[in-house]
Amino acid sequence: MQPDPFHRDCGSRKVLDRIGDRWSVLIVLTLADGDRRYGELAGRIDGISQKMLTQTLRGLERDGIVTRTVRASVPPRVDYALTDLGRSLVDLVAGLEVWATTHLAEVEAARARYDAR
Amino acid sequence: MQPDPFHRDCGSRKVLDRIGDRWSVLIVLTLADGDRRYGELAGRIDGISQKMLTQTLRGLERDGIVTRTVRASVPPRVDYALTDLGRSLVDLVAGLEVWATTHLAEVEAARARYDAR
DNA sequence: CAGCATCCGTTGCGATACTG
DNA sequence: CAGTATCGCAACGGATGCTG
To answer: Chain A closest CA to B27's CA: distance in Å?
Structure first.
């Protein structure tokens, strides 16, 4: 039997939750064009708190989407990179980004119309 | 200048939030193969509460992704359908569903590995 | 530098009860 | 049938301070 996200207890729901997550999308997108250090991610993703960055990275690592590599040096350096699984996701989340940006104006117009009644 | 979800205050963030939302994805997917009544949606999307169904439908309506049509009859009947904008989203969210189901096993294996250390 | 721990207000969301 | 209203808890998520 196929996994079916329409069914309550199917794990695909959890997977959907993660890949749909706001920060996950932005992190995967950032790592799509190259490995990044912790601080680089923090700098590129405007408005993310340290807590959410760490938390989201841990979740992505746990799900096998990113790898975390610690280099024993002073100061410490930690690199994050996409796994094969993570790379298989890039086109999809890039598609979300493209849709969001290209249809932003339409959505905002629709909202204005809706709120005005 | 292009809308950029990497910037804190860009509206594309909000758009991304909506289309990535767990229930939005399932609702759009359900409406993708035909208009549905409120109760049909409730029946097909296992585990959604009345509150979340209504709330998510309102959000999608506000964003111009679905339409809500009330037929004046007894008992009342309300039909939900995708707009053109909503249909432009179907392939994308279907892609999310496919990814989630096809990679579910990999993700669960990765989780088990991660948790076992 | 790359985090972890803690506090704490805000929001999400389910359960339940009621209505046109 | 298709909602709305209210309650209450749990999770989200930011700010701050500390550490190897």
So the answer is: 10
Q: Is the CB of A51 under 7 A from strand D?
A: yes
> What's the CA A72/C1' D18 distance, rounded, in angstroms?
22
pLDDT recorded at residue A2? 74
Instruction: Give all domains of chain B, ordered by start, each with its CATH number.
Output: 11-116 (1.10.10.10)
Token pair of B42 as six digits: 């409730």
Beta carbons of B44 and A12 less than 8 Å apart: no
8 A C-beta contact, residue B102 and residue A12: no
The verdict on a CB contact (< 8 Å) between B22 and A2 is no
What's the whole-model pTM score?
0.94
> Are B66 and B27 in contact, with CB atoms under 8 Å apart?
yes
Give B64's Cβ-side CA count (13 Å radius): 17
- Per the structure block, which two tokens stand in for A2? 């196929």
Note the CA–C1' distance, B65 to C10, in angstroms: 28
Please give the nucleotide, over all strands, whose C1' is closest to the CA of residue B70.
D2
For B22-73, how does the pLDDT look when each residue is reduced to its tens digit (9 = 90+)?
999 999 999 999 999 999 999 999 999 999 999 999 999 999 999 999 998 8
